[in-house]
Amino acid sequence: MTRRLASGLLARLRDCRSGVAMTEFALSAPFLFGVGLGGIETANLAITQMQVSQTAIHIADNASRIGDISTLENRRIYESDINDVLLGSNIQAGRAIDLYHRGRVIVSSLEVVPDSGDQQYIHWQRCMGLKHHDSSYGAEGDGLDGSLDGMGLPGEEVYALEGEAVIFVEISYDYKPLIGQVFSYADTLNATAAFNVRDNRDLTQIYQRDTAAPDEIATCDQYNAF
């Protein structure tokens, strides 16, 4: 009787398939979860890179338009104009990615050395952000000795024409993974953008609206955030 009962139980166990799916799921779950989390992290990285790139374009575009409008003289730009552009970028996009606390924005005015024909130099540069990062393409004043071939990647440099200026913006941003570093292959995101100045601009200097109460200058030796 006992032998017959044991034989019946073994036969039922042999024919049972109720645990097959559970076993397969247990074996495949780590792989599926890994692929899913990796896909989420990749999507988040792509979205963040797009936001950083669009912010660079936004800053360069607006900085190329700023200045007083006058039919009698070239358009002047003021320190307050540049500060407003940086503040505006923080309101529009920076808060979503905490740009100025985890990144650095560098705005450069690429121009031609007066009376040189086509010799490129960085006339002025303004920065904002807590990240310690220097420009990859030059600092304020670079090019006066003829060493600057424009700004941008080698072979893809942008150039200013005589009497005009190009606003070149760089952003370096410390990426914080959404899930974990193990699913991310990037820790620093970079973006650049360049726009020609739209109107005839006074290129001699950046002015103060009120010299008795000057606006703060966002020089690149400071590390500030909004």
How would you characterize this protein structure?
Helix content is 36%, strand content 17%. The chain starts with a helix and ends in a 30-residue tail after the last strand. The radius of gyration is 29 Å and the shape is elongated. Helix 2 runs antiparallel to helix 3. The longest helix has 44 residues. The protein has a four-stranded antiparallel beta sheet. The chain has one domain. It has four helices and four strands; from the N terminus they run ααααββββ. The protein is of the alpha+beta class and 226 residues long.
Could you give the topology of this structure?
Blueprint: H1 2-15, H2 20-63, H3 79-97, H4 99-102, E1 103-112, E2 120-128, E3 165-174, E4 188-196
Antiparallel strand pairs: 1-2, 1-3, 3-4
* Count of helical stretches: 4
The N- to C-terminal Cα distance equals 85 Å
| Overall tally of domains | 1
Oligomer: single chain
Instruction: Give the strand tally.
Output: 4
Averaged pLDDT: 86
Helix-strand makeup class: alpha+beta
In sequence order, what are the helices and strands, one letter per element?
HHHHEEEE
Largest sheet: 4 strands, antiparallel
Helix content: 25-40%
| Radius of gyration, CA atoms, in whole angstroms | 29 Å
Gross morphology: elongated
Low-confidence stretches: none
Fraction in beta strands: 15-25%
Strand order of the largest sheet: 2-1-3-4
